[in-house]
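To fix ideas, we reproduce below one chain and its tokenised fold.
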Amino acid sequence: MSATASDSGGQLPSLCVVVVNWNGRDVLEDCLRSLRESGYPDLRVIMVDNASSDNSVAYAQGRFPEVEILESDENLRWAGGNNLALAALRDEGWPQQQVLLLNNDTVVPEGSLERLTCALAAAPDAWAATPRILYADDPARVWYDGGRIGRHSGWVRHAGIRQLAGRLPVTESRVEYGTGCALLLGIRALETCGLLDTDYHFYGEDADYCLRIAAAGGAVLHVPRSLVLHKVSMTLGVASPRKVYLRSRSHVRLLNRHWPVWRRLGLLPAQAVYFGGHLLWHLWHGRPATALAMVEGILDELRHRPIPAA
């Protein structure tokens, strides 16, 4: 028995992992196998398939019969797909004590689930928890080591990104948001905050949910000793115009949802620097279409225009 299991009295919190999939057949093997080999007792895994056309469901059924599969007739995206599973768990009366929302393009090393769930269970003020997330193709470097939200700037960013993991502290801390790549939710968060907000088309749903947790009196715990490997940006590409368009829309939506009008006015200088810096970055790297997509995303969100089909 590991030290974390011993510290929790020898009994681990019951856990359900929800994996949303859309045409992720090529990454499912590594993700689901890592969960199977995690050693976590009585682990429940639910895969929500968002109307994939790449044989993902048949593949998962054949290779991982222990995984429960919920099929959607349409692409509900990240928030809607997770909500499909969360609503089913709610209707069952939340049979597991904790629910981990996990990207399909991740790998979970053995022992990480245990460290994460025990840390959340041992922190009375924490309603959610996040692991340290590393680049799968460069696991010595960090992709996420806690989330920061500047209340006076409106900047939302990862801490520790691209830094060497060995140089960063491993002490647990409270952070302002956890990335939806691997976000562990306790029952207090689920019962109080409910489902994810599907008005975010892509990106921002995780920060929104964590801000709702904070507003309700809960905290988000970061657990660096728990590790997850992430195959970053396999869905839309590193700097695709579509990705940047959706990200800029969601960022503006997040500010409108969680900052009152009088405080948003104070964000204008910092936001000008934020978006201006990104605009110049894309132009410097010869990506005018991406720069234009960012501007269009901002304007379309401010004008409440519908999101164009991909």
Q: What stands out?
A: The chain has two domains: 3-230, 241-302.
